[in-house]
User: Which sequence fits this backbone?
């Protein structure tokens, strides 16, 4: 991997991690185009760390408030993380095998699009407006666990599930991104050994360039998505996922 491929990958990661169109799915396709024969797992983890920094920077005030005084939200995030880690652990190995299958990603993108369309429908019928609670937070955590499958967007699955559960758009986005913090940290710790073995002095600049690009683009993507979800602009993302998935399926045959 050269520095330009790393920067392009970081741009794609930063945009698609927060836009509900599946960062893992797009990275699978992108790395297939680059001709990588095996999944760049260590590099992908660095990209996710870059987007984690985006969340920490963008929601720094909310994070401080949660730690210092908002115990209810802290408990809800912890509660939602339980199904995420259980499902993520169970699906981890099977999911990683699909990182080398663009066709599978195509099918999952179609499913992701249908999920988003359902959320758009619920929001368009004014069936949202509640605040996050124990049941809805648990369901969002389940959705985040399922999103370990490439082609299923983490942000798309969690935000859609929150909207379908009746949660208002702004709360859905904030909870989704705050919930990503323990998930990304947990996944990074599990793959720490893999990262250490994969980084050499020669590859460090590419890893750093990808992570920094993902962080910068991620901050802009979070800001944009906050407004889009608040105004129920999910349908274009749903259409994009379905059409992109169908194209990937056709060209992968």
Assistant:
């Amino acid at each position: 991997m050269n520095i330009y491929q790393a920067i392009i990958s970081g741009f794609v990661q930063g945009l698609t991690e927060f836009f509900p169109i599946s960062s893992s799915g797009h990275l699978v396709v992108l790395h297939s185009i680059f001709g990588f024969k095996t999944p760049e797992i260590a590099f992908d983890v660095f990209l996710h760390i870059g987007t984690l920094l985006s969340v920490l920077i963008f929601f720094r005030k909310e994070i401080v408030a949660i730690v210092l005084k908002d115990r209810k939200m802290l408990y809800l995030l912890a509660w939602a993380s339980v199904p995420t880690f259980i499902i993520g652990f169970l699906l981890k190995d099977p999911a990683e095998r699909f990182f080398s299958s663009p066709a599978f990603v195509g099918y999952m993108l179609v499913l992701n699009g249908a999920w988003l369309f359902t959320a758009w429908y619920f929001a368009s019928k004014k069936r949202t407006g509640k605040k996050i609670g124990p049941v809805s937070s648990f369901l969002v955590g389940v959705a985040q666990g399922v999103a370990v499958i490439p082609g299923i967007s983490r942000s798309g699955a969690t935000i859609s599930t929150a909207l379908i559960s009746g949660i208002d758009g702004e709360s859905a986005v904030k909870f989704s991104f705050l919930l990503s913090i323990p998930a990304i940290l947990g996944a990074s710790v599990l793959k720490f050994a893999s990262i250490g073995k994969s980084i050499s002095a020669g590859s460090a600049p590419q890893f750093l360039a990808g992570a920094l690009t993902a962080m910068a683009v991620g901050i802009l993507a979070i800001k944009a998505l906050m407004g889009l979800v608040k105004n129920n602009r999910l349908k274009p993302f749903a259409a994009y996922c379905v059409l992109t998935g169908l194209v990937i399926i056709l060209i992968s045959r």
